[in-house]
Amino acid sequence: MCKGLSAIPSSCLEKAKGMRVKLSHLAEKQEWVYKHRANEEKLPQDLESLLNSKLGVQAFRWFLRSEFSEENLEFWLACEQYKSSSGPKLAGKAQSIYNQFINPDAPREVNLDSETREGLTGLMQEPTADTFDEAQHRIFSLMAKDSFPRFQRSLRVP
Length: 158
Prior knowledge:
158 residues; mainly alpha; globular; RGS_sf; RGS_subdomain_2; RGS
């Protein structure tokens, strides 16, 4: 007789949920790879080209999500959007980015060295359009050296 889900240990249910998430990300990635090849698009050769492509950003996001490391891309994109901001909303947007990605208790904290983090903390008193430039550059470099090469390797389907 079936006892239902309540008979299954919660640790098994958590593992099953994790596997479901990973499989859905894998399916999304495979869908993108096949679309990419079907359209005979050239694989992105550098991160800058990828980030200038809506489809490229979407595929990179799917890949990073599957590795549970999407925060660097999200921070970079938030900085790009922030640069185009102006006026009285600038300080609020800067604080939002800081709280979400920079603050040591941030829910999506990015990996920045202490010097960059401290410098940025000092700039938060009077933020300008280029407040996050150095931090954004460091995160771009990190993605270019680390996650982007793994992303490129993941696209190679035997």
